[in-house]
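In the previous chapter we treated chains in isolation. Here, by contrast, the input contains two separate entities that must be folded as one system, with a combined length of 392 residues.
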Amino acid sequence: MEITKLEKAVRQAARADSARTILTDSESQGDPHLPSEFDTAAKTMAKRRAKKVAVGSILNTTTAQWL
Amino acid sequence: MIDILRSEICKTLEAHFAEPTQRETMLRALSREGFALHPEGRCTTGLFTLEVYRAIRSMLDATAFRAAVATELYMEAAFMFDHVADQELDQSGGLSAAEELILAVSLMACGAAAACEAAQQASSDGQRLHALLQLHRGCISSCSGQLLDAQVQKLGLATTEEALRITRLKSGSTGRSAAALAANIATDDPETIRLFEEFGFNLFTYLQLIDDLRDACPESSAVTDLGQLKKTLPLVYFYNSLAERTRETDSGIIPSHEGKPVSQEVRQGFKASGAEVFSAIIAETFLNRAKSNLAALKNRTRTVEGLEQFISSLEFSPNEIFAVP
């Protein structure tokens, strides 16, 4: 399980601190650089949320693409 | 079902703890908040064991409950170890570290006795002893996770990979051994047993990751894992974020001293670090693996409805940590 890739992606997004991001939904394209299992996990988690929900000032749009 | 399980636990303690002081102290210890005999105790491991058995046999019998008592007592022993490791000794119960540890060892022995009884009831041919072997292998793996955890607590920074490995060993192994015991006494089919073991491993890893996420820095509680500087996955991620920031800017937020309330500044830093998102995605990955295992088991068992309901009852809602605007 390559969690360091996920860790790096989330950390970069958090450091950018550039956007209050809205999770779209599972229609997003995903991030090809991350293991697909994480991509799927982010999507199934998004599906269980009540439509669009703010993550807070955590993620920038890059990360939101695969969320 | 949980009431019957609790009753069986009490009967087991009555049967195996002949010394009244040991028995009564144990009953009091298990009645504390967070333990099996407390009215709000969840008995997750024992109930999970029952559901695995029922999925294969379509019914619950005395053997199933013996197996459930065995796995739940092992889990309760691990909780007692955690109490000592976390130095959260129950003042009202007045247990010293030495008392807590010996109770934990006693519970493990009692769990082993209940497991032997389950295997004896299931078969007279000795083949079911493999179930016990798998149970104990899982317990040894789980103990190795506890040991690693204790060692990591003494060190400075850890990696997220180390934190996840500890979680997998401590909690995943517990789920694997609970499933192994139930499946081995309920069926001879190796693939069904293997799938249930994987299912238990993935589900319990998920549950622990979610617990760690909830306990990291809850708004509603003054006692937090962060305040105690624990090395759970979300917190290891956070500490390393702080370390990285400190290296690059010579600044950073320093967590409060161990045992003291976490300041609002540190709480905000934790939220902004992405630790919750990171941990939630990894937890969800294990949930998906567990669901995939369960899907594969549908054609190999009579019913998995109970296990599906079991998952639903424990499933984490992302809305718990990500605020709705």
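Residues 3-66 of chain A form one domain. Residues 18-30, 50-67 of chain A have pLDDT under 50 and may be disordered. Compare these points with the single-chain example from earlier in the chapter.
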